[in-house]
């Protein structure tokens, strides 16, 4: 055997061994995917740009995401007067992205409330995320919205763009579908002691419920602070639509840790209806089980909470668990 033949044989053997070793590696040892050039755990000062409008959004995804892996995608919309910097810690599903295989896009409106002129931007964000993940790898797609972000989710979810994409809607103090929960008479942002006198009558609240429920098919989880409403309805038209069983009360969720954020600009004075400082708490969970087509219909009431205290970690996981039902969480 010549030297060149021996070298070729060694090279072939090395390539073959390397290939076999690569094929035998577990998925967790493969090179993880990077989505849209973004860090897997978002840095709010380094957002992702969507190409259509060059507007930005924040993206979180599993740091060990593998090619072709199935994920649940969440579009996480802030409320009026807010931003992605508040919404991300208000509903911190990103803390569970590895455990439940979540990809979470948290967009931002420069007007600090969502308008119809923002719809194309939201379409672009969804298209960018779907394209990066691969539509065949999307197990489910949920809209989540706080306050006016919930109203916006309600408005857009059955439009031509979203109707065949959306699997569920989490309303975070953004209006209940299947029967309205009456607002507390004292609900709304409190007038602050140092506020300037109003020069005109206040506008209609942006969180006022829209007329009628969306007509497409979706799962629905409604989460609300106890002091925001008079009472939670004990029936649901959605549960009837999907032939769910009668409502059951699940075990209360007890959080010993506080949420991550609150409305620090509305504490002079603060009100229990609008929300005070973050603190631990208990949440009641009501579910209509065994719905047709595996739909989820549930209500969550956070006791001793108002509109703006960020959700506590265990109730966030309870909600995410319902959103990803059928997914075996990783330890």
What does this structure look like?
The chain is an alpha/beta fold and 331 residues long. It has one domain: Rossmann fold, CATH 3.40.50. The chain is 22% helix and 18% strand. The longest helix is centred in the N-terminal third of the chain and has 22 residues, at 3-24. Residues 3-25 and 199-209 have low confidence and may be disordered.
What is the topological layout?
Elements: H1 3-24, E1 48-49, E2 56-60, E3 71-77, H2 84-90, H3 97-100, E4 102-107, H4 119-133, E5 138-146, H5 148-156, E6 168-172, E7 219-225, H6 237-241, E8 248-249, E9 253-255, E10 281-287, E11 297-302, H7 313-323
Parallel strand pairs: 3-4, 3-5, 5-6, 6-7, 7-11
Antiparallel strand pairs: 1-2, 2-4, 8-10, 9-10, 10-11
């Amino acid at each position: 055997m010549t030297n060149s033949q021996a070298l070729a044989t060694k090279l072939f053997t090395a390539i073959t061994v390397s290939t076999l070793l690569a094929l035998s590696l577990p998925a967790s040892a493969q090179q993880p995917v990077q989505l849209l050039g973004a860090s897997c755990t978002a840095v709010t000062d380094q957002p992702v740009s969507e190409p259509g409008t060059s507007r930005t959004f924040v993206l979180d995804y599993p740091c060990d995401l593998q090619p072709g892996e199935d994920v649940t995608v969440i579009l996480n919309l802030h409320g009026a007067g807010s931003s992605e910097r508040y919404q991300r810690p208000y509903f911190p599903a990103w803390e569970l992205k590895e455990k439940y295989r979540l990809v979470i896009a948290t967009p931002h409106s420069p007007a600090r409330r969502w308008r119809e002129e923002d719809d194309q931007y939201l379409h672009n964000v969804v298209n960018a995320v779907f394209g990066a993940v691969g539509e065949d790898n999307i197990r489910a797609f949920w809209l989540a919205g706080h306050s006016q972000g919930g109203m916006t989710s309600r408005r857009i979810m059955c439009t031509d763009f979203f109707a065949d994409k959306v699997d569920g809607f989490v309303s975070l103090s953004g209006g209940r579908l299947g029967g309205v929960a009456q607002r507390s008479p004292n609900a709304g942002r409190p007038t602050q002691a140092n506020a300037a006198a109003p020069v005109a009558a206040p506008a209609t609240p942006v969180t006022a419920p829209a007329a009628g429920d969306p007509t497409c098919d979706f799962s629905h989880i409604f989460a609300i602070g106890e002091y925001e409403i008079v009472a939670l309805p004990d029936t649901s038209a959605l549960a009837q639509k999907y032939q769910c069983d009668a409502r059951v009360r699940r075990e209360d969720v007890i959080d010993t840790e506080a949420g991550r954020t609150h409305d620090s600009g509305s504490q002079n004075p603060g009100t229990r209806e609008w929300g005070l400082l973050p603190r631990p708490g208990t949440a009641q969970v009501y579910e209509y089980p065994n719905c047709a087509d595996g739909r989820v219909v549930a209500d969550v009431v956070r006791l001793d909470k108002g509109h703006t205290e960020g959700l506590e970690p265990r109730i966030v996981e309870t909600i995410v668990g319902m959103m990803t039902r059928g997914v075996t969480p990783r330890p």
